[in-house]
Amino acid sequence: MTPAERRASASLALVFALRMLGLFIVLPVFALEAARLPGGHDAARVGLAMGLYGLTQAFLQIPLGLASDRFGRKPVIVAGLLLFALGSGIAAWAPDLTWLAIGRAVQGAGAISAAVTAFLADVTRDTVRTKAMAMVGASIALMFALSLVLAPMLAAWVGLAGIFAITGVLALLAIAVVVWVAPPEPTEHRPSDMRQLQTSLTEVLRHRGLLRLNLGVFVLHAVQLAMWMAIPAMLVSAGLPKADHGHVYLPAVAASLVVMGGVLFPMERRGHLRAAFLIAIALIGTVQLALWMLADAQPGLWTLGALLFVFFIGFNTLEASQPSLVSRLAPAHARGAALGVYNTLQSVGFFAGGAVGGWLARSHGAEGVFAACTLATLVWLVVAWPMQAPASAQRR
Question: Using alpha carbons only, what angle is made at residue 336 by residues 127 and 274, rounded to the nearest 5 degrees?
Answer without folding.
Answer: 40
